[in-house]
Design goal:
Blueprint: H1 2-6, H2 9-29, H3 34-55, H4 60-74, H5 76-79, H6 84-103, H7 108-114
Helix pairs in contact: 3-4, 3-6, 3-7
Amino acid sequence: MEWLVNNWVLPVCAVCAVVSIIVTILQFSQKPTEEQVRAIKEWLLYAVTMAEKELGSGTGKLKLRQVYDMFLQRFPWAAKVVSFDQFKWWAEEALAEMKQLLASEGSAVRTFLEDKG
């Protein structure tokens, strides 16, 4: 018992290390699977298109904020494990895909965005 009183720091550090390892494993196991990431990216295409329709061009930060708020509501579990930087990267990919769809001839996306009704 005397040893424990004199060296209480060692057991406390050991417990903290074990808890830290368990938390890290749990966080890793909760990361989205490839299928979940694909679903989020497909939804992001919709979300950036809606933000573009509502806010128009030249409002990049506002659109990102709006899409992120929509993401927090739609995927609260993913928002806990996906960093904002990763989300921003995915949103930029979705925006690039939307622009590619806009550039195609006879694009239904262009018609949808131009329809303000």
